[in-house]
Amino acid sequence: MNRGIFQLDTKSGMPILCTIPMPPITPTWSRPAVSSSYGPSVNSLSPLPADFNEFIGNTHVVESLRTAIASGHLPHSIILSGPSGAGKYTLALLLAMTIECERQPRDLWSNGQTFASFCGHCSNCTRIASAVDLDAQVAAAVTAREELREADKKDTRVLIQPHPDVLVLPPDPPQLLIKLGQVRTLIQRAHYLPAEAPRRIFILTAANMMKEAANSLLKILEEPPDSVHIFILAENLGELLPTIRSRCAIVRLGALPIEEMELLLADRRPDVPPVQRSLIARLSQGAVGRALTFDLETYTASRADALIFLRNAAAAVQASSNSEPDHTALFKMTETYRAGADGQQKTIALLRALSMLLEDLLLLDAGTPELLRNIDLRSELDRLAAALPFAWIERASHAVDQVYSGLRRNLLRSLSLDAFAAQIAMPMADP
What we know:
The chain has helices at 42-45, 59-71, 88-100, 123-129, 134-146, 150-153, 180-190, 211-222, 242-246, 258-268, 274-283, 288-293, 296-318, 328-335, 343-365, 378-387, 390-408, 413-425; strands at residues 2-8, 15-21, 77-81, 106-108, 114-116, 157-163, 166-169, 200-204, 228-234, 249-252. It is of the alpha/beta class. It folds into 2 domains: 2-252, Rossmann fold; 295-425, no CATH class. A hairpin with a 5-residue loop joins strand 4 and strand 5 (114-116).
């Protein structure tokens, strides 16, 4: 359950929709909650790790951040970089809880090193932890926005506020971009002292921003107030302006080795057969969160559609000048992506599957088949790699980026996909 609060941006006058997550009635954490006189614990309110020991991977990175908090030297602006599912948002929430925790616990190692931690029981910790299900919070905010008058919908921005001093800025649907109104709210609130906690914390959950939003963010990054910490989560650092990157400390979350991923899946998802675990470990690209929630059935369905693109292109490349390959199956498939509320997510899943197939073709061209992700398609990938030249793969990769860009600019999905299909179905010109 969420409470929606509408406020006016003091500079733009635009309405801002903040959803304040309410604690769930029933626990979602699978293990028993730790009873405490301090009230509900993080264990009982969310699927967040109970402590930093349960955050899987990137131990040295996490320890460095905890040491910086304990010593009071945490940078005011940090970019958490890593693939989707690497734990960027989870880590940002854990760090926010560590900074804002009322008890401020410390772990002291035998070598004298001190690590900051969080209690998981205090009011600050539990409220911040309530924002863990970001998708649900954003969906609730979007639903609330749809109930507004048409005149107000366009300029209403979505923000998630689990705590008076913690504000989460997600990409605003449907363009899925951080927008100017959101950043202006960040700037305005950053200049107020914290209300209930030691610091004000802002978490931007994506790097893709409108140009005006990115330029406005620079203002606060250049001279952040002493009581402010800003976390920017980025899958691709190249999406951020160089001037933003230069004003932030960059923390990279690396991928886990495939062997460790398989062991983790065997422990956490024992119901998955070993062959599928091996495939998921590769498809998740070393990202723990993605591996633990990977829906192989949905992925293979998207991949089946992506393969239609590649097979059609291979037929076009091999066709003689007097023959034209049959594109019926291709455009019949793209027709299924035209309508429906879930069409955008379905299209994104298709593009991701196609991107991974294209990367596998490049790995085969480079002579590194041991790095393949779609290992169950090795025979077909060999045939496609032999038929599709590097120039075509490069062109297709650029076309995928263009469709992503079109989705963010809210272009018609049907036109974007049809144009993409037609572009990559064209045979390569003779050199």
